[in-house]
Amino acid sequence: MARRRRKKRRRGGGGFLYKLLSVLLICMAIILALTLFFRVDTIEIHGQVRYTEEEIREASGIKPGENLYLLNKNDVAARIIESLPYIENIHPYRKLPDTLVIEVTECGKPLAVVQDSGAWLISPHGKVVGRVEESEAVDYGTVTGCTLLAPSIGTPIALATEYGAQQTSLIDLMTALESAGLLEEVDSIHLEDLSYLTMDYGGRFTVRLAYSADYDWELQKLVKALSKDAIQSNMTGTFDLQLDSQHVYFIPNVR
């Protein structure tokens, strides 16, 4: 009886090793198949406007024939964003058997901060995306009353520590403007006054806004006020949105 039990144990141990070896061989076969057959032959680019497909392909650093499954998609996205600063979001994904799809989202119209004998362009989400001559700043909305610390293309903007509220409010306002489709109407944003910020809007109006406000809501109020018949096409003046969270006060300019 003891011999039979020992034989059964030996057979059981051999069965386990056989199963383990089979699993390892299957895994190796899968890895080999992924390595040999799933290679990048096509890179599809979607969502680009400013950059060409070829520029994005080149910035990705991907070479034809690279393994589709061994690609680090985070590295691909980081390389593209670093090389092409107007791109703010990237979603790369695989499309079997041989295609990598790269979906990109470019930032909206940048605003210009004039300093350092030129103008730095900042995206609505607060990233430095370019630099132009000071004379070209008129082609963009401008931001005044702030100085960028060590600006560099592709990096987030930074203001002095004591201007933290202004920096956060500026980015939140620009983001809300982009979301509402109103960036093209902005002539300039002014941060000189530490009690409230102002925005020159539509070539005719000044808009006063509180720092750290809910800018999505404030812009809804502004759009609603502009749609009223009381605001005629030849009128100029100031919309004060900082005094009341529910109401807009309009102060017409006196001619």
Question: Would you mind describing this structure in some detail?
Answer:
The chain is of the alpha/beta class and 255 residues long. It folds into two domains: 42-106, membrane protein fhac (Ubiquitin-like (UB roll)), CATH 3.10.20; 111-252, Rossmann fold (3-Layer(aba) Sandwich), CATH 3.40.50. 33% of the residues lie in helices and 25% in strands. The protein contains five helices and twelve strands. Strand 7 (141-144), helix 4 (164-180) and strand 8 form a beta-alpha-beta unit. Helix 4 packs across helix 5. The chain is elongated, with a radius of gyration of 29 Å.
Counting DSSP E segments of at least 2 residues, the number of strands comes to 12
| Average of pLDDT | 88
Level of helix content?
25-40%
Count of discrete domains: 2
Helical segment count: 5
Strand order of the largest sheet: 6-5-4-7-8-9-10-11-12
Strand content: 25-35%
Task: Report the major sheet.
Answer: 9 strands, mixed
Remind me, CATH topology of the largest domain?
A: Rossmann fold
Shape: elongated
Q: Could you say what the CATH architecture of the largest domain is?
A: 3-Layer(aba) Sandwich
Structural class: alpha/beta
SSE topology string? HEHHEEEEEEHEEEHEE
Cα(first) to Cα(last) distance is 115 Å
CATH class of the largest domain, anyone? Alpha Beta
Which residues form runs of ≥5 with pLDDT under 50? Answer: none
The radius of gyration computed from the alpha-carbon positions, rounded to a whole number of angstroms, is: 29 Å
